[in-house]
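A quick aside before the break. I want you to see a complete sequence-to-structure record at least once, exactly as it would be stored in a machine-readable document. Don't worry about memorizing anything.
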Amino acid sequence: MVIKVFLASSSGSTAIKKKQQDVVGFLEALKVDYAQLDIACNEENRMWMRQNVPEEKKPANGIPLPPQIFNEESYCGDYDTFFDAKEDNLVYSFLGLPPPPGSKQAHAEEEEEQEEADDDREEEDLQSEEEEELRQLEEEEEAEVQEEEEEDLEETQEEEAE
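That is the input. The structure line, written in C-alpha cells, reads:
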C-alpha cells in the first residue's frame, strides 16, 4: 500500500507550501512509504485528484487544494483532517495503515482491545453469577415442592391410618 500525497510544486501560497511540508515531513518522520504526485506539472495527477476527492469533502468552489492524501485509490483526507489525526495520535488509522508495534497508536489500540476483553470477561462473570443464582433459586423451589409433597403424603397416610 502506497500513500499518495498530491502536492503543488509551484504554489504561490505560502500556507499551502507549509501544509504540504508538514504532511511530507511527518510521513518521513514516521517512515511511511508514500509518493508525491505533483498537480502543478502533471495534468493527469490534477484531474485524478479532483475526480477522486469525495463531493462532500470538496470546498464550496468544488476544487480541492493540495495537499490531498490517498491510500492507493482510497481517499484519506486533506490537510485539516490529517492535522486532526496527528493531534489525536491517529495518523495510521487516518492513512488506513496498521500502526507499527510500540507506537502511541498501537499502544492505544492495545489498551482499547484489553479494555474490551476485560468488559467481556466482566459481562461473562455477571452472566455466570446470574445463572448460578437462578440455579440456586430453582433448586430451593424444587426442594420446597418436594417437601410439600412429602407433607401431603404423610397427611394422607395419617388419615388412612385413622
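Two observations worth writing down. The mean pLDDT is 88. The beta strands are 3-7, 34-38, 68-71, 74-78. We'll return to this after the break.
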